[in-house]
Write a structure and sequence with these properties.
Blueprint lengths: L2 H10 L8 H10 L3 H8 L5 H14 L2 H11 L8 H11 L4
């Protein structure tokens, strides 16, 4: 999926068919449903899910929990604006 198409799907309010659970999580986050975004990746143990989990906790304001999940993902904690990190994650995990 191309990044502009993903953005269009967010604006249209329609989850694109066939996208990964990681992209689904970021889609719900962009639509303002933090809890659904978190629920989708909460029990997943892969590095990409941990990376998104970290971002979500950073967005929530729980820096300690975010640091834990960045570590689980093998990533340094992010200090970019949240919108920039979201875009990077979307592109990194499936929407180029």
């Amino acid at each position: 999926m191309r990044y502009p198409d993903f953005l269009h799907a967010v604006a249209a309010g329609q989850v694109p068919e066939g996208i990964s659970v990681q992209l689904q999580s970021l889609w719900y986050d962009a639509r303002g449903d933090w809890h659904k975004a978190h629920d989708l990746i909460n029990d997943l143990n892969d590095p990409s899910s941990a990376h998104i989990h970290a971002y979500l906790h950073r967005k929530e304001g729980d820096e300690g929990n975010a640091r834990y999940w960045y570590s689980r993902a093998g990533k340094a904690p992010c200090s970019l604006p949240l919108a920039d990190e979201w875009e990077i994650l979307v592109k990194l995990y499936g929407a180029s």
